[in-house]
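dumping these here so i dont lose them again. two proteins, back to back, each one seq then structure tokens. dont judge the mess
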Amino acid sequence: MASNVTVQSLLEKISVDHLECSICTNRFRQPKLLDCLHSFCLQCLQELRQSQYPSGTKLTCPLCRRETMLKGSGVADLPNIFAFSALVEEVTMQEKLLEGQGSEIKCQNCDEENQAVSRCMDCDHFLCQECQKAHGRMTLMKSHKIYTLAQLRSGEIVYTSKLRDEVPKCGKHPDQNLNVYCNSCEQVICTTCSVLDHAKHSLTGLPEAVEKCKKKVTEMVQKSERRKTQLSTTMEETCKFRKELDTMFANSKKKLSKKAQQEITKVKQEVAKIQKEEHKLMKEMDRIYKERVTTFEAAQAKNKKEVTQTQHKLEEVKQLMKEASCYEILELQQKLLHNLSELTGKQPQQVPDKLSFMD
């Protein structure tokens, strides 16, 4: 039972939509992020580009049809999402531990293919009983953290991918870690780049830059949440007015028929005339009603679509802010803020309440 809880806790970190590529429907392999915040496997995007614009500088998202401009090496230069790769690795590892309660897992430290009984978190290897003992005898490995498969299966110890601790290297200086944020260029750079290429720019340490970025994103998320609430309120009001229109329409038809019948009773010689007038008015009312219903339904459909798109976009932003590293957050700052800005700029489609009145 505890094992199931462990798997569930891992899967709850991210939805299936984020764990799997929508193109190949397999779990992510080298996930890349488009400007619309949708993620796909590197190879899937490369094949997609060949089918869309083999020699072009843009790529159309297969989910939302939004275009992403490609730079440098094309698809390969799109932002990496190491957080997704790490989560795929963690979930895959947990499933592997649970399959047959881990009986098929072999030792990765020797060539004897003995059944593994534990895992060394420092070596990132499964160990058999003999290799585990060898670890304990070697001075350099005595400090390594070794946990049994039972501990990993039960959830007592949760496997964490080393990708989460990976520090990106500078493209210009491969031996340098990215550890400075240039506010002027809005990018993460290394110390050498800060001296050679950004000396006159506004520079900030990563912790401070991440906090500022998180604050900006949080503010935009709040604005987007308020817009979603506004859309939902407008939809509720539109639904209310539509119901009022239906009621007024029904009552008006009843009143009209009643009046017609009264006139027929009073003046029999004018029956034909009155019935003809009734038919004419009914037809006109039907026309007006249908026009207004069309207006209400169009407004509802547009607002519903906006709510859905807003919700999906917010989920993408929240997931990225939750799972992405500080480096990725800063690299994606403009994309995040741009997407959220688009959400806050749209206004809900409203229908005048006077259209619900009919008599």
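---- next one ----
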Amino acid sequence: MTDDTQARIDQAVKAADVLLFMKGTPLFPQCGFSSRAIAILDHLGVEYASIDVLQDQAIRQGIKQYSDWPTIPQLYVKGEFVGGSDIMMEMYEEGELAELMAEKGVKKAEG
């Protein structure tokens, strides 16, 4: 992976309070895990950004090295890697994900 890809990922992670690297888009997730991750974030009602790794092969490979995590989706909150959809689901069910969002001061989505 190039330093340029690493820098692009790092910049994206730091630019958004909540960022989901996923397959597809929030409206059209391209895998069940990405769909589940979006459902969790929508249910929490937080503002989030997403990056479709299917649109950029360098990002798709680079994000796995960036986080040292082999699968997508990947959730970042305030620049910190949280985990994939299984971890998100566990944390959501335990109330930990909502707590994390509140602790980090993540904005609620408008509307």
